[in-house]
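haha ok so turns out i had the wrong file open the whole time. this is the CORRECT one, sorry everyone. sequence first:
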Amino acid sequence: MDSSKIHFILKLVLTIILIQTLFYKLTASPQSIYIFKKLHIEPFGRIFSGIIELICPFLLFIDRTKFYASLLILINMTIALLSHLCILGIVIINDGGVLYILACICFTISAYFSLLYKNDLIKDYNQFKKTFL
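then structure:
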């Protein structure tokens, strides 16, 4: 299979997971409220995280912004994983660890894309230097 098809499928998987969890965050589901109350960042953390999960999937499909989208998702998922490991636990309200597994999947895919597209950052930096410095 062509690597561009694999990349598209990975972006689609990432988008589906983020949009799915976004729905629960922005509709204030009891599980989502429980998580963010336990982290002491309810409602602002829940809404901010939801906004990131709303914007980034679309930015992943735009060539100019795909690195920044994958980096933002990576940061968001790093925070989610650290929250699970340090404060929340892997299983939350008898979910069987589903949220943790989804965060691991998103972390892995976004880390892959961040490394894959890191040259975009270098290119943007060189363009910035040429233009402004």
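The longest helix spans residues 3-26.
again sry for the mixup
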